[in-house]
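Dear Dr. H.,

I hope your travels went smoothly. While you were away I took the liberty of generating a structure for the chain from your last submission, since the lab meeting agenda had it listed for discussion. I wanted you to have the full record in hand beforehand rather than looking at slides cold. The sequence, exactly as received, is reproduced here:
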Amino acid sequence: MGNLRILISLTTNDNDYQVEQASAAEQAARKHGIDLRIIYSDNDAINQSTQILKVIQEAEEADRPDAIIFRARWWNSLAAGGARAAVNQGIAWVVLNRESHLRSGVARAG
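The corresponding predicted structure, in token form, is as follows:
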């Protein structure tokens, strides 16, 4: 089995806090041998959802992330759809800055 693969989706690289989040994640990934990919959505919720769904749906299974860490631009049905799609593919889903409105039905999927 290869390294753990994690995708982090942040909303912007123009925010000091999110830049620090990315830097800390990169340091932790190097320390623990994690394959890390960070994407930014340019503060666009639709772009963010589209980026994440592409990773989930188009990637070869061997290249899919094991987990997605998601800093939501805002929580909406597109974000919920991404969470469901990830979990249905066996990909863990972590929301950094929102209370998820998804409950046990999604958590049990996959």
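Two observations you may find useful: The chain has four helices and four strands. The chain has a mean pLDDT of 81.

With kind regards,
E. W.
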